[in-house]
Amino acid sequence: MAGARVIPLHDPERDAARRSRHVEVVPEPEQQQSATPDWERRLADLLSFARRRIAGDYQVDEFGFDRDLTENVLMPPLKPLYEKWFRVETIGLNNIPSAGGALIVANHSGTVPLDALMTSFGIASEHPAHRHMRMLGADLVFRTPVLGALARKSGQTLACNPDAERLMSSGELVGVWPEGFKGIGKPFKDRYKLQRFGRGGFVSAALKTGAPIIPCSIVGAEEIYPMIGDIKALARLLGFPYFPVTPFFPLLGPLGAIPLPSKWYIEFGEPIRTDVFGENAADDPMLVFNLTDQVRETIQQTLYRLLTQRRNVFLG
Amino acid sequence: MTPKVVLVTGVSRFLGGHLAARFAANPDIERVLGVDTEPPPRDLLRRMGRAEFVRADIRNPLISKVISTANVDTVVHASVTASPAGPTGRTVMKEMNVIGTMQLLAACQKSPKVQKLVVKSTSAVYGSSSRDPAVFTEDMGPKDLPSSGYAKDAVEVEGYVRGFGRRRPDVNVTTLRFTNFIGPRIDTVLTRYFALPVVPTVLGYDARVQLLHSEDALAVLERATLHDLPGVFNVGGDGVLLLSQAIRRAGRLNLPVPSAAVPTVGGFFRSARLVDFSPDQMRFLNWGRVIDTTLLKKEFGFTPRWTTQQAFDDYVNGRGLKPLIDPETIDAAERGILDAAARFR
């Protein structure tokens, strides 16, 4: 539809193309496309997007995921950050299945959850199936106005077992950061030391649905906002889990909120199968603990390996 | 088992009245009794045909006499409502909902002839908060019990219904937890809300809204009455609309109101007799609510004919809501810009 609209009525170049197509047996759609300049097609896309938004003509799933908005508005601004600022390199994307439920478990760091955004952007743009990772977020996110609504629209949902199981059994790719605020808000001196992995709720959700667990190790995110202090009183006042002090924030004000341009590596490890443990595996706490430890250890070891290979924080 | 004598409560309202009309049109049912405190509107009464209207208050023990003398074997309790009768109607509404249900259940318990009870409940019993899972199944409960309003009424009503089920295990009890109704004919808080030219919403929040077409609601209640399908079932249309999206589809303008000003704005709309929102419904506008209807489809054997989006569109078309900005204008603007762009190439 959008393509059909941009075709101008009187254009010598296109008319010539149309005439020539009459002679040809097989019409070439490529030629037709190249006749309209790129910016004009983009304008047409933009206008049809605007029309869809004004008319409310788009689909939202039961978790509130608005694919139209995510792909056209929320994702594009991440592109320069991903490609130019952090120069993210992904390793082992082939470990992520192209279809079906799976659970990505990653380390959390960086004071601001940019690591989650970069991972989801990396999978959406570089994985052959361009899958949208559905992230599980803390309830603080959903309680916060604007942020909570945006989180739902971008496909996130509350980190709880019913939601995780529902997503995975409907064949979605789920992302979880089990360290939570303990991981993201840890002091700079503890960088790349994995914190406690919650209560293993993510493992039991994976066991229940039989979805594979893909350990994911992110290197580089620890250095974007080196947290050297935490103003606890201010955090309590504002209702935040921590109030970060970095070498530049709050000293330089908004300038200090610019993340340092560290070089990032995101490695996806071998999937750990969870469908081999039988029917009631999720009710076996020992198995859940062991699997949790296995995932945690895999991520920790991969982090150490990636760190030894890295020569410079900013150049990689 | 097809019921012989059916008693429907709340027949002066849309659901109860139309349900009684459907039963009256069913030749297998011998007698249909409709109960309410006030007579149904004339057009509804005409539709109800041979159904008999009994002007009675279910808060009054008289209802027991009606049930036993008429040999009622099936009771459809459709009068639990979210819409108060007026600005001061909230206390009356609560009494009708809770005390009325207690009296009705007491009467049912007394009458050995009663074989089946169908209760129209609401998904509001799940509450609405940021800490809830995205989708509710029948076995979930609210994170914090609703402290007031319709949701609290419904929780209490369901409690009494469970108690009745324990005391009369021979009676088939079906509890139906409906989402909000929508449709061209039904009049609810939500249909009035979306008909406002400028629709106030809570700034920074966008609720997920699941709706059920009123015709589907009638069909579900009818099916529950005509067949033996005991249990608790979520009933809602497939799919979800975001509140902002619904407002756009209705062609209305969205007016985001900061949380702090919401009670004031709500009070204004109540005193202007436009829309009467209770605090729990305000919370619904913050978070919304989505329920899982697998059980309805698999065990109850009913798939709603309208999805949430279709039901909403039917409401918009049926009510003749005129969008503030004509879609033709938007199309024309889009074409105009593209033509202009083509000329500049």
Automatic annotation (TrEMBL), chain B:
Residues covered by the NAD-dependent epimerase/dehydratase domain: 6-236
Pfam families listed in its UniProt record: Epimerase (PF01370)
Domain of life: Bacteria
PANTHER family in UniProt: BIFUNCTIONAL POLYMYXIN RESISTANCE PROTEIN ARNA, NAD-DEPENDENT EPIMERASE_DEHYDRATASE
Protein name: NAD-dependent epimerase/dehydratase family protein
